Amino acid sequence: MSRSRLAAITAILAGSCTLAACADGGGSAAAAAPSLTTSVPAPVKDVDTVTWNLPPGEPPTLDPAQSAIESVSTPLANMCEGLFSFGPNYERVPALATSVDHPDDLTYVIHLREGVTFWDGKPVTPDDVVYSVKRILDPKLGSSWIGWAERLRSIEPTGAHEVTIKLKQPDVLVPNFFATPAFDVVEKAFAESAGRSFGTAGHGVMCTGPYKLASWTQGQNITLTRNDAWWNTQVKPKVKNLKFTFITDPSAQTAALDSGDVDGQFSVPRAAHVRLKDKGNLLFGQSLSPTFLSVLNQKGALSDPATRQAVQALIDYKGIIKSVYQGAAQPLRALVPPAAWGYGKDVYQQAYDALPQPAQDLEKAKKLVAGSAKAKQKIVLAYTTAIDEESRTATAIADAASQAGMHVQLKPLTAEQYGAMFASPQARAGVDLFLSSGYLDFPEPLTYYQFFTTGNFYNFAGYSNKEYDTAIRTAIATADPSARAREVTKAQAIMAHDLVNIPIATQYVNVYYKAGLTGLVPRQNYLYVPWATTLGGKG
């Protein structure tokens, strides 16, 4: 499923200037769009220890079942593996499985790699694979990865090195999950023995990946050490030890990176970009992340299409890109960003180009408000204060709304309150608009658009459109890429017309590491691939 930044307040960002102030003076120098990095020199030198910071703070667990949050997934991606992994362009590459057969629309036969062992030397078996998948499907565990299995009929061992998955209905999304933590394999005996302690500092985990857990000193750090018995002999990690720290304060993060006390970090505070850009490697890459407004209340002011159209028209998209994101983002015409078009790109491009270019038009907003009694009613806009970009974006929207004759009341949320918005109808009570950011697990637009079908758990506003539902259902069962893209874009156009949500921007993923290191390219898939295996010393 797609991930929300609720789980990953990955960028607890600094800066307090208003939108207008940041767009002038010294702020403009930092607003130029950064170049995107798609390759860097490979490392040639071994490094004993790299210290890496986790901006969200200490992970609550290292259990793959809970790896929908970035404080967990960032270290765990180097420890635990699934059946497949993602390549640089999100192509599926073999990992614990060498191949998969798809003899009919409902069947996947997984061929497991022979000779793979867990860190303790015990062999990986089909029973371990089936146990790991079924464990995540246990509702008592509370794993969000359970969502992939809506159409699952069975998963069972069917040979000495074979597992077979049967579906109740065709679902083109399923193979993508083979490369996510939904299929991370843990040692059955170890996990059963650990029980509820599995993944904790006191008990740890047992996986197969290139790094294994060496120590976890709660409140201080987690250290991984290289697994020299890793099955992938074609890749020899240059970094021997990977030490994770838990600095959450943006100013402290900046100071630690600047001084060299910390060697690297994903999601660097934007206030630190100018300070760090010439000191080491501050790199940017395309992401699968949208920032958008969700309509939560279809009965209040936003029940009138004119109100939703006015909100869309009053947003200063260019100003937000320039000053809030300092140029490290692009405006969005649709909810799913272009980087997430994993197939049928010509179809998606044509449909995307047909949507209106997002641009602020205060005069249009004023006219819409003047002709709508609903638009003059109070609109409550909720956002998280834990992400500075979203605080500033929400403030900018409220200021522009006031200019258009609308009354937008801001409702700031703590990180805890923000998380509750995704799980509790009570937490959403009284909220009309919700500003949030998320990311897709892989480049498949369906992973977001399916959430707005009738009755979906994440369809918080209760939006219902039969044509939309039909298009999404058809797409999920359509294997042909171009045909599937046509169905998805049909739903996308319906959503854009109905303004179920208002897309704002897609921000770039960023990473910083010190000058003596090389090899790591910023990609969204660092959450699911062993990114530390690409890192090492320069020549």
UniProtKB/TrEMBL annotation:
<dbReference type="GO" id="GO:0030313">
    <property type="term" value="C:cell envelope"/>
</dbReference>
<dbReference type="GO" id="GO:0043190">
    <property type="term" value="C:ATP-binding cassette (ABC) transporter complex"/>
</dbReference>
<dbReference type="InterPro" id="IPR039424">
    <property type="entry name" value="SBP_5"/>
</dbReference>
<dbReference type="GO" id="GO:0015833">
    <property type="term" value="P:peptide transport"/>
</dbReference>
<protein>
    <submittedName>
        <fullName>ABC transporter substrate-binding protein</fullName>
    </submittedName>
</protein>
<keyword id="KW-0813">Transport</keyword>
<comment type="similarity">
    <text>Belongs to the bacterial solute-binding protein 5 family.</text>
</comment>
<dbReference type="GO" id="GO:1904680">
    <property type="term" value="F:peptide transmembrane transporter activity"/>
</dbReference>
<dbReference type="InterPro" id="IPR030678">
    <property type="entry name" value="Peptide/Ni-bd"/>
</dbReference>
<dbReference type="Pfam" id="PF00496">
    <property type="entry name" value="SBP_bac_5"/>
</dbReference>
<dbReference type="InterPro" id="IPR000914">
    <property type="entry name" value="SBP_5_dom"/>
</dbReference>
<feature type="domain" description="Solute-binding protein family 5">
    <location>
        <begin position="93"/>
        <end position="456"/>
    </location>
</feature>
<keyword id="KW-0732">Signal</keyword>
<feature type="signal peptide">
    <location>
        <begin position="1"/>
        <end position="23"/>
    </location>
</feature>
<dbReference type="GO" id="GO:0042597">
    <property type="term" value="C:periplasmic space"/>
</dbReference>
